[in-house]
Structures are given as C-alpha cells and as structure tokens.
Amino acid sequence: MPIDPSLLLLASEPHDVSLGVTLTFTGILVALIVSLALEEKIHAKKSVIVMTFALGSLFLGTALGLLPFHRITWGGHEVDLPVFIPSVDWNVIAIILGASLFVDVVSKSGLFTWVAIKLTKVSRGDPVKLLWFYGLMTVVFSAVLNNVTAMIIVGSLTAVSLSKLGREDKLLGFLLIEGLLTNVGGLLTLISSVPNIIVGTAAGISFVDFFLAASPFVAVGTVLTILMGARLFDIKRLASDAERRRAKELVSSFDENDGIESRAFFWFGATMTGLFVIVIASASHLPVIKDLGMGYVALLFAGIMILRFKSVADRFYQAIDWDLLAFFAALFVTINVMERALVLDLIGEGLHAIIGLGDTSGTAALLVSSAVFSSVTDNIPLAAMLAKILGAMDPAPSSSLWWAVIFGANLGGNLTPIGSASTLVAVTIMHKHGLKMSFGAFVKYALPYAAAQIALATGYVLLFL
Q: Do both 116 and 230 map to the same domain?
C-alpha cells in the first residue's frame, strides 16, 4: 500500500518562512555549489562536502521550525522514520547501486575488453578508422555502462593501441574527443547518466520515449564531434601500402581473449547485458516489474550476476562507489531543506522569468544556462534542483523544458574539465601519459566542440522536442 501523500515529510503544505531565512539558506546553497566547484582545492570528497552542508541544514532547519516532525502512515500503521529518510529518492539510489554493481561484475567476464580489441583489429590500425571505432565505442559504452567506466576502458585501450602503432602524437586528440563523446553518449538512454535518471524520473519519461527522443541528436552529435576532431587534430588515414601493412601486422598481435578466464561466464555476461537493457527498456510495461520500478531491475540483475562470485562477493561491495551514493543521499536531504526554506521557490521565480521569454527564447535560455552552470560545478545538484522546480510547475513529460535541462546538464560537462567526472578522467589519463593539459588548455581545446554541440542541441530541442 502506498504511503499516504498527505503525511509525507516531503509534503509541501503551506508554512510561513521569512525572506531573511530564505536568503540565509540561499547563501548556504551558493556556498555548497562553490565548495563542490573547488573540490580539489579544499581536498575533500564530494560526499563529505555535501554531508557537512546536509547536517548543518538539518540542524538550522529544525532550529527555525522548517521541518515537519510527525509520523507517516504506511499499510495502515504509523511508521517512525528520521526526518531525513523520506527526503532521499531511493529509486535513484537503487538504480545507481544496482547498475554499477552489475557492470562491475560483467566487466570481470572480459566482455568489454573483448569488444574493444575486436574493433581495434577491424580497423587494421588506420588512425581515422580507429578514431571512428573508438568514438562510437565510447558513445555505446557511455550509454550502456556509464561515462566514467566508458572513459576508463576506452581511454586505457587507446593509450596502449596508439603506443603499439607508434602513433603517440595523436593520443591527446583521441583522449579529448573520447572524453567529450562520453557526455554525448550519456544522453542516449534514461540510465546513461545521473542527470537523466533524476530529470527523466521527475518528468515521467519512459526508457523507450527517452531513447527515441535523444537518439537522433546523439547520432548527429557523435558524427559532428568525430569529424571536427579528425580535422582539428589532423588525424588522417594511412597514406601508403607499406604503412597499412605495418599497422595491420602490429594490430594482429592484440589478443582479445586475454581477459577471458571462463568462456561460459563470458557468454553469460553478454546474455545478461542484453537482457538487462531489454528489461530496463520495457520496465514500465511489464507486470509486477512496473510497480517495483527500474531500481528493482538494476538490483535484480546485480544480484543474479553476483551469484557467480558468491564466495567473494565482498570484493565487489568494496568496489562500489559509496562516496557517490553518500553524495546523492546527502544531496537529496539538502535540497529538501532548501525546499522547506522556500529557496527553490525563489529560484523558481527566476526560472519563470526565463521561461516567460517565450517558448523559443525561454527554452533556449534554460538549456544554455544549464550548460554554463554545469560546466563550473557538478551537474547532479543542478539537475536535482531544476527537476524539483520544474516538477512544481508540472509541465507535461513531453515538454521541451525537461529536455532543455537534460541536454544542458549533460553537454555543459564538455566546457571545462571539472564539469563532468568523465572529462576529469580523460585529463587524468592524459597526465598519466605525460601529456600536459591545464584547465585553460582544456577549455581552449574543448570550446569549439562544446559550442557546436550546445548549438546543435538547442536547435534540436526547439525544432523536434
């Protein structure tokens, strides 16, 4: 039986909040965003930063009488829960936990490495073909796995492949293009990136509808990015027969079976990956599953895969990104307090002003401003905050406003190295291989791509969504 909506701690029943209190909590929110932007400077994990602000906000919110302390009714019984528990979107937490655990176990089968090396051999060492194959692989891996995992797998293989082919001078271009493509691929499905999950869930967009709406842009954006990359970094095809023969010989030494310890587990992992995508895509239409949600599906497939390593399952639990999960839980709590302090209402008034510019100008301004803000701080808090504000305005799931936030939050990560975890990983791989890439240099290199992608996204959202 569902929880009585009138008794939820997240309920937005009328309450009096002075302007001074709202402005105080607005200052706290700004301080949180600045702290996340300066994460490396203050030497603190995201989870620690947000948890500190969450605990402080809870204390101050309670002291000022902003939070409702009463029990909720569930199944005809009163349930006593801490005030912060219902603040958390547990479906989002379950999706992230289950999907990351599933991917981690499947990767042990050698499936992703096998795919990557197979494509390398098909390219026969030609730099342009290699760029296209690695670019497309980055997009697909970002959509099916997540953009950080995709960047780690493809980036590492790129460094090894180009080194063996004697093309180390092209490594910078490859890694930059792959880093940018992770955020393009992150737009492909509802579960490809966290902003997609947050905003798509709030909007009520199904997995299939999300894919159908986003895939045309992802296809064109991928082609545009690769073509620009090949031109700007002077990546050309092999000119002579001798070069082609030499490259083919070098690539043939790659062995795609090196990472496969069990052929049976390899095929089991491949089958389960296909089923995972199919079930996630049809979750909203399957009996029983549609009530349990996508979070249950992610946990179910993770549970099935972990049975393969049931005696050493704790190894995979240790590898879970608990920092990310703690970050989300604390973030949801903080945003709930901000909502109680009417900070979101204040921001919503500004959002109304942007939307009030008209269907065309308002949507374009929302997309571009989302991209700019995402470039200087984490796009997850931004997506969560805007999803909450738009949800209060109650636009239809098909509204272009939702898509403006989704596209802006994802593509803004390509403007700076701190705007996305995957671009930060790309820069880390560059440094690992002795390639210099400062903050300013990244912006200089990435700006033409990001500007083209954001312009394309704006036109696409306005004309087709």
A: yes
pLDDT on residue 138: 92
Please report the pLDDT score of residue 187 as a whole number: 94
From residue 57, alpha-carbon distances to 33, 76, 84, 227, 338 in Å are 14, 32, 11, 48, 8
Among 297, 319, 341, which residue terminates a domain? 319
DSSP 309: G
Model's pTM, two decimal places?
A: 0.71
Distance CA 104, CA 117 (A): 19
**What is the predicted pLDDT for the residue at 448?**
95
The continuous run of DSSP H or E covering 74 comes out as: strand 72-74
pLDDT tens digit sequence for 122-145: 888 888 999 999 999 899 988 876
54 and 115 together in one domain = no
pLDDT at 117: 80
- Pick out the chain residues at pLDDT < 50: 1-14
Quick check: helix, strand or coil at residue 72? strand
Whether residues 344 and 441 fall in one domain:
yes
Q: Which domain holds residue 16?
A: 5-87+321-464
Report the run of H or E that residue 78 belongs to, with start and end: strand 77-79
Helices assigned H by DSSP within 124-170 = 127-144, 147-164
Distance CA 320, CA 318 (A): 6
Q: How far apart are CA 59 and CA 407, in angstroms?
A: 35
- The CA distance from 36 to 421, in Å, is 12
Pair 74, 148 in one domain: no
CA distances from 191 to 194, 206, 251, 306 (A): 7, 11, 34, 21
- 123 shares a domain with 207: yes
Beta bridge partners of 77: 74
Verify that 348 and 297 share a domain, yes or no: no
Total of domains in the chain:
2
pLDDT at residue number 240: 82
